[in-house]
Specification:
alpha/beta; Rossmann fold; pyruvate-formate lyase- activating enzyme; OB fold (Dihydrolipoamide Acetyltransferase, E2P); 3 domains; six-stranded parallel beta sheet; 14 helices; 20 strands; binds iron/sulfur cluster
């Protein structure tokens, strides 16, 4: 009789960088003889790749872990991996005493060995170390995750910036860039597998290569990618740090049609005093000049940014500076987060003195202002024709994205009729919603 192959179930929470690590864990477990299952009840090993950088993310991770802990039997093993596991292993043990293992972000590649060890012991295993973050090369896996005809490709991990509100440098350590050739090889594999869109990710893509001795490393990386996969239609860069968008980088984005005119610069605030307290670049005039240069070189560019409201000491006047900035700059996409007071960050020594209802009201005011701008920009597109990457169809409708929409965070194009998925088509825009567009396929 054939022996049943052991199965694993993995749930990944948080950002795309975590999803890439989860894909790496899955690859290693498959290599070790495990089968993936989408049903935790059938799994021998259940893994939650947690997110832990703010309270809301930890809450979601806890809910997922608790729900799985209630469902599984004593013969199944439950493992908490990822950022929260790295950040607070002791707290996780207190909250979930039945966990079989806790594995941090810097040892995720050891999960197959840990699973083996769990079959021989009843004692919980905690494997959380303060070494440098593990990159796919070290683990022998790809550094990407595919979804349909798109992929996230990790170019670096960790962060060397030290923003006052952010726990990431503590969780992941300083930036570690992947070797250029490893990234190019991943891109070739993705292209050969039929991927049409690669999204480059890192905590801060503009830092790429500094630790490898490169200057302005993202520009040569993009040039290398264009050369390695010239037939890849969409190459998108996410998460650029303000002050590091150099003229050379702008030249490269503008020069190659494959590199999408889409720039995501999380600015976090627009009041210089708040930015200084956040330990971020505080030269708002320089940010305006960079945005001006991007728009001058690429009038069709889509600009995305994110802001934090309610940072310690944020006065009404400072918030109004931010609101006026958003109204004046007319970004295409804006994400707004309420400040989360995090232990172990520099801002934890400040008083979290903006009341929750004020944080929420400021977030709403910023979102309302941006919604008006977004609708106006979308209305201006009605009647134009845009390339759309189809993502799926059902019930007489197809959804897709234009170059203006990064996966998972931006809007969609809703197209009449069922036209399948995984191809680029031309769509005439027929109507505008605040964040999405409607259109019809051009025959
Ligand atoms: S750039 Fe700042 S906000 Fe972004 S991950 Fe690094 S420390 Fe955190």
């Amino acid at each position: 009789m054939r022996r049943r192959r052991p199965r694993f179930y993995i749930a990944s929470l948080g950002c795309a960088k975590n999803t890439v690590d989860a894909e790496g864990i899955a690859t290693l477990l498959r290599r070790a003889g495990y089968l993936a299952t989408g049903d935790p009840a059938r799994a021998d090993v259940v893994i939650v790749n947690t997110c832990g950088f703010i309270a809301a993310a930890r809450e979601e991770s806890l809910t997922t872990l608790r729900s799985l802990a209630e469902q599984i039997t004593p013969r199944q093993k439950l493992i908490a991996a990822g950022c929260w596991a790295q950040r607070e292993p002791e707290r996780l043990r207190q909250l979930l005493p039945d966990l079989d293992a806790i594995v941090g972000t810097r040892t995720w590649h050891e999960i197959p060995r840990i699973v083996q060890e769990l079959s021989r012991t009843e004692a919980p295993i905690v494997n959380v170390q303060r070494r440098k973050v593990v990159m796919p090369e070290e683990a022998g896996t790809g550094g990407y995750v595919r979804f349909g005809a798109s992929a996230f490709l990790k170019i670096a991990d960790g962060c060397s910036r030290g923003c006052a509100f952010c726990a990431i440098p503590g969780i992941k350590g300083p930036t570690v860039s992947r070797p250029l050739e490893a990234i190019l090889e991943d891109a070739r594999q993705l292209r050969d597998a039929g991927v049409l869109e690669i999204n480059l990710i890192a905590q801060d893509t503009s830092f790429y290569g500094h630790d490898l001795g490169m200057r302005d490393g993202l520009a040569p990386l993009l040039e290398g990618l264009v050369e390695a996969v010239p037939d890849l239609p969409w190459l998108r860069i996410l998460y650029l740090f303000p002050g590091f968008i150099t003229d050379r980088l702008i030249d490269v984005i503008a020069a190659y049609p494959q590199v999408l005119p889409y720039v995501d610069i999380p600015l976090q605030h627009a009041d210089p005093a708040i930015l200084r307290r956040m330990r971020r670049p505080a030269d708002v005039e320089a940010v305006k000049r960079t945005i001006g240069r991007l728009r001058e070189r690429m009038p069709e560019i889509t600009l995305r940014t994110t802001f934090i409201v309610g940072f310690p000491g944020e006065s009404e006047r400072e918030f109004l500076t931010l609101l006026r900035f958003v109204e004046a700059m007319r970004f295409d996409r804006v994400g707004v987060f309420e400040y989360s007071h995090e232990e172990g960050t520099a801002a934890a020594s400040l008083k979290d003195d903006v009341p929750p209802e004020v944080k929420a009201a400021r977030r709403d005011a910023l979102m309302m202002a941006q919604q008006r701008i977004s609708l106006e920009k979308n209305k201006a597109l009605v009647g134009s024709r845009l390339a759309v990457l189809l993502e799926g169809s059902s019930d007489g409708l197809t959804i897709g994205r234009t170059y203006r929409d990064a996966p998972e965070i931006d809007g969609l194009v809703l197209i009449e009729g069922e036209h399948g998925s995984g191809r680029l088509v031309e769509v005439e825009i027929t109507a505008a919603l605040p964040y999405d567009l409607q259109g019809r396929l051009v025959a």
